[in-house]
Write a structure and sequence with these properties.
The complex is a heterodimer of chains A (about 325) and B (about 625). With about 325 residues, chain A is α+β, with helices and mostly antiparallel strands. Chain A is about 25% helix and about 15% strand. Chain A has a domain of about 140 residues: N-terminal domain of TfIIb. Chain A has 9 helices and 12 strands. In chain A, the strands form 4 sheets. Chain A has a 5-stranded mixed β-sheet, sandwiched between helices. In chain A, strands 10-11-12 form a 3-stranded antiparallel β-sheet. In chain A, helix 3 packs across helix 4. Chain A is globular, with a radius of gyration of 25 Å. Chain B is of the alpha/beta class and about 625 residues long. Chain B has 5 domains: about 80 residues, Arc Repressor Mutant, subunit A; about 90 residues, Glutaredoxin, CATH 3.40.30.10; about 240 residues, 3-Layer(aba) Sandwich (Rossmann fold), CATH 3.40.50.11540; about 80 residues, Ubiquitin-like (UB roll) (Roll), CATH 3.10.20.600; about 80 residues, Up-down Bundle (de novo design (two linked rop proteins)). The longest helix of chain B has 18 residues. In chain B, helix 25 packs antiparallel against helix 26. In chain B, the strands form 3 sheets. Chain B has a 5-stranded mixed β-sheet with strand order 2-3-1-4-5, covered by helices on one side. Chain B is about 40% helix and about 15% strand. The chains are: A alpha+beta (about 325), B alpha/beta (about 625).
Chain lengths: ~325, ~625
């Protein structure tokens, strides 16, 4: 111990080098204090969860699959889709599991008649107004809750509209938009701080828009594609994926995913390269990666064409 | 921040409109002329225009130019250092702002339920003949007319509001309106001949109860107004004005709260929450309010009265504006707030004018500002005008609107008393609730609680409209039956038979003529599955097709939902579509099946929506389905 002390004293007395070097051992992250836990009841089962967790966290602990749409770990919950609602004893209305924090002695039902009805209706409302064909998780939930969107008839108001293709990198098909606010959050303070898009209009005509709905190239968009990364329904899609889907060649069963590090700068973002038939078709980043949290920049997201440009006359 | 703007340029007039609200720009960085010193300028966050100025700025643009262009939006973005997409999101949320070119003179003609009962459909048809269909230009392209949601002038239905943009912008109300008078007023507005006063306030037409001598003596909330409705401070002081505040200052905040608690006053905005509890929550947090802490408390007066059929708050603000200020000042004294806001409905020009005049003269006479009545209390009040969004009457949507965001409700908890305006503890109260406060403090809470019933104390204002002989605001002690109230207002208009009464507005419930002996209390209405809501009592005689009323209510919600949460955004649309089919007798499947779907939708909206709008969007419909078989 005294040796170590002398070593440090010596280090402190040593003349300052021109380039500062860290003195002493590199500090480690202090151990995280164990959060006090809260006892709650879910579907009759007692569960102990950390204070400050949400009901969704608690249901995950019990392996209960709660449907979510507007929720993603990396963004602030906006609790607008209401597909995750659960019944909380003593509450007049159902509460959103994704954002409601646990309180001691809460008693929650996740599969009651009321919960099932609301979830079913929310899914029916969505499926009758937007195209959920590229949101496979929603199809599963619709089956689970017995949703029949066709019962609202064929002449009901929908968000069907032409696809917006105004740049070479990604397309915006707002006929598939469920207004989950994720892209706005990712474009704003939760990730990118570009603020190219916001929710505009009101009511059923509320929609995601640039200012005055100008095309993306005229807006503040920097093409980081982080909005595509969080879109749950495929309303925002790589142009490469969109073109292949149009041509009928998109086939995820024939795709491989390779994790690699972005070659462009020193940040070290992890990329997941999706490849089909020897061509890169899409690039994502793992949500739980400590560097990216799923976010990339234009280079990492879209700048891979050089990989597949081949000099004329050369074969694979 | 590093803003990316489109190439659209603002006009000199647009810049003048923005500068009129924000003052001239300091440098070229804020959109001014380039000067040599600009290259050496440094800015920090304190020098930014706070985001909450956005609504006044947009109002200024709309009032001056008549619409908000891309160029104007770019200038606002530069002046306020905000991304244009965000500003567009805010501007496009509100019904009053036009983002397309529009003539400077716009007549908003109400076709909502109360006006519908009084012939607004006939008025609109005549206007279509005279001026062309709604939205088409007339008067040489300088004017247009639009159908509108309830304008809160239901006692004088059918009503219209004309707004004229320009260097001197004007607003004027016409009620009751005829097609000829509307056309005349529009031409006057185009020629710049608008009357100086936006509306004339008349006790006889708006508060008929106050005009009769014997009843006037028993009035409490309306008493001062029945004696003098000039809105002058001298008159207010002559009739016990500011006595409540003086007594409150003598009692101290704790005893003031005790009196309020003893009065058992429940909020009059619709949710009926105990007022004392709200204030107590802030009172208990006062010890955290240090001089140097960024923590603040706010008092907000919710004057965004937009529930169809409701106009009592407008009458109070027009006829007795100081009572609202006094109530807020007492609230500030108890809660420790230094700043108050009145979020005043955009469609109420006279109320806005009179409230502003009242604030100005209260400041001059030391009833607002620093060291109020020489007793060391500091409190200021600012008026924020809404811009045509019913949802902003929801308290958390109202906060977002004041803060300069889209008026979308927040999830609760946290409640306003924990995290309200600017995420600080906030007491938000309805106009009528606040007007009750000075009386309660002056006479003592126990005396007040002797009025009314055990669970519903005090008096209550009711807005009688529709097919009633003498429409207007009526004040009665809680506990009077619906029948007595209707009799007080002269019964059914034209001696016809009563078909239905809508209690509590579009978010309320229908009751049938068999239920007229229900006492008008919180517990009495609850017992028959209805609500007092905001005090609407709208009568419909047997000539009315109730299906059309239900359809109009459904259209109202379809128009006014903010669109944030799925059950409400899509639910109100599906509900309206379903009602349309039922009204045309073309249901999907059988009528029973269609109604079963409607009921399921109603439950999902009530259970899963974020705020009260979605939760009550089906309540009037459900109450009607329970009482009558309208569609078989």
């Amino acid at each position: 111990m005294s040796d170590r002390r002398a070593e440090i004293d010596q280090a402190l007395d040593a003349p300052q080098p021109a380039i500062p070097v860290p003195r002493g051992p590199v500090p480690l992250t202090p151990p995280r204090l164990a959060r006090p836990s809260v006892e709650i009841k879910i579907d009759g089962k007692s569960v102990s969860v950390a204070e400050g967790s949400t009901i969704l966290d608690a249901t995950k602990q019990l392996d209960i699959d709660t449907p979510t749409l507007c929720f993603i770990e990396s963004l602030t919950p906006v609790n607008v889709c209401r597909v995750c609602v659960v019944e909380l004893e003593g509450s007049r209305t159902l509460v959103p599991a994704c954002s409601r924090k646990v309180e001691p002695n809460m008693s929650i039902l996740t599969d009651s008649e009321r919960v099932r009805l609301s979830r079913r209706l929310v899914l029916e409302f969505l499926a009758s107004s937007v195209d959920l064909s590229t949101a496979p998780a929603m199809q599963e939930y619709m089956e689970r809750y017995g949703a029949h969107p066709e019962r609202f008839g064929t002449v009901c108001a929908t968000l069907a509209q032409p696809v917006k293709i105004d740049n070479d990198l990604y397309v915006r098909d707002y006929g598939k938009c469920v207004l989950c606010y994720k892209c706005v959050e990712a474009c704003g303070v939760d990730a990118q701080n570009t603020f190219a898009i916001a929710v505009a209009g009101r009511g059923f005509s509320a929609h995601i828009a640039t200012e005055f709905d100008v095309p993306l190239p005229d807006s503040a968009c920097v093409y980081c594609g982080n909005c595509i990364g969080v879109c749950p329904t495929g309303a925002l899609m790589f142009k490469s994926e969109y073109d292949m889907r149009q041509a009928g060649t998109w086939d995820e069963t024939r795709q491989t995913q390779t994790d690699t590090i972005c070659p462009y700068c020193g940040v070290g973002c992890e990329l997941t390269v999706h490849e089909q038939e020897g061509r890169i078709v899409r690039v994502t980043s793992p949500l739980h990666h400590s560097v990216t949290h799923g976010n990339l920049c234009i280079k990492g997201r879209f700048g891979w064409q050089f990989v597949q440009i081949q000099p004329a006359g050369q074969k694979d | 921040m590093d803003l990316h703007l489109t190439s659209a340029q603002s006009t000199a007039e647009e810049r003048a409109a923005v500068d009129a609200e924000l003052g001239p720009p300091d440098s070229s960085w804020q959109g001014g002329q380039r000067q040599a010193s600009d290259t050496r300028a440094a800015f920090n966050d304190d020098q930014r225009v706070p985001r909450h100025r956005i609504l006044p700025v947009l109002h200024s643009l709309q009032n001056r130019v008549g619409w908000i262009s891309t160029g104007a939006l770019n200038y606002v973005a530069v002046r306020m250092d905000l991304p244009p997409a965000e500003i567009y999101g805010v501007a496009s949320f509100y019904g009053m702002f036009s983002l397309q070119p529009r003539p400077p003179v716009v007549a908003h003609v109400c076709d909502d339920i109360a006006c519908f009962a009084r012939g607004s459909d006939k008025l609109c048809t005549e206007l279509e003949h005279r001026l062309g269909s709604a939205g088409s230009t007339c008067s040489g392209g300088r004017a247009t007319w639009l159908r509108s949601q309830c304008l809160g002038l239901c006692e004088r239905a059918p009503a219209m509001l004309v707004r004229s943009a320009g260097t001197q912008s004007h607003e004027g109300v016409l009620a009751p309106a005829s097609a000829e008078a509307v056309h005349f007023l529009m031409n006057d507005a185009v020629a710049g001949r608008m009357p100086a006063e936006p509306d004339s306030f008349s006790i006889h037409t708006s508060v008929p109860q106050a005009a009769t001598k014997d009843a006037a003596g028993q009035l409490r909330l309306l008493q001062r107004l029945s004696r003098s409705s000039s809105g002058h401070l001298e008159e207010y002081l002559r009739f016990d004005g500011y006595e409540g505040l003086r007594k409150s200052l003598d009692l101290g905040p704790e005893d003031t709260l005790r009196q309020l608690s003893a009065s058992r006053l429940l909020g009059r905005g619709g949710a009926a929450f105990p007022t004392a509890k709200k204030w107590e929550a802030l009172f208990l947090q006062r010890y955290l309010l240090r001089e140097d802490s960024p923590r603040a408390h706010y008092v907000v007066c919710n004057a965004d009265e937009s529930e169809p059929g409701t106009f009592k708050d407008r009458i109070l603000m027009e006829g007795d504006p100081f009572a609202v200020l006094e109530g807020m000042t007492i609230a500030a004294f108890v809660t420790g707030a230094k700043q108050g806001y009145i979020y005043l409905r955009g469609e109420y020009p006279l109320a806005a004018k009179r409230m502003q005049l009242a604030i100005d003269s209260a400041i001059q006479s030391r009833f607002l500002g620093n060291n109020i009545v020489g007793r060391g209390l500091n409190f200021n009040i600012e008026i924020r005008r809404g811009a045509g969004a019913y949802i902003c009457g929801e308290e958390t949507a109202l906060f977002n609107s004041i803060e300069g965001f889209r008026g979308e409700p927040r999830n609760k908890p946290p409640f306003p008393t924990q995290s309200g305006l600017f995420r600080q503890p906030t007491a938000v109260n309805n106009v009528e609730t606040l007007v009750n406060v000075p009386n309660i403090i002056r006479e003592g809470g126990a005396t007040y609680a002797r009025l009314g019933t055990q669970d519903s104390t005090g008096t209550r204002l009711f807005c009688l409209c529709g097919h009633v002989a003498r429409p207007g605001v009526y004040e009665t002690a809680m506990g009077m039956t619906l029948r007595q109230l209707i009799d007080l207002a002269g019964g059914i208009a034209g001696g016809k038979t009563l078909q239905a009464v809508l209690l509590g507005g579009a978010a309320g419930a229908f009751v049938s003529p068999h239920e007229l002996d229900t006492p008008l209390t919180f517990e009495g209405t609850r017992a028959i599955g209805a609500t007092l809501g905001s005090g609407v009592v709208m009568l419909f005689d047997s000539t009315v097709d109730l299906r059309l009323i239900l359809l109009r209510i459904a259209s109202f919600f379809r128009h006014e939902t903010c669109g944030q949460c799925v059950p409400c955004r899509v639910g109100v649309v599906r509900q309206q579509e379903s009602l349309q089919r039922l009204t045309k007798a073309k249901p999907l499947g059988s009528t029973t099946e269609e109604i079963a779907v409607l009921r399921e939708m109603a439950q999902a909206m009530r259970d899963a929506s974020i705020c009260g709008l979605g939760q009550t969007a089906a309540s009037a419909l459900e109450s009607a389905l329970r009482r009558w078989s309208l569609f078989s």
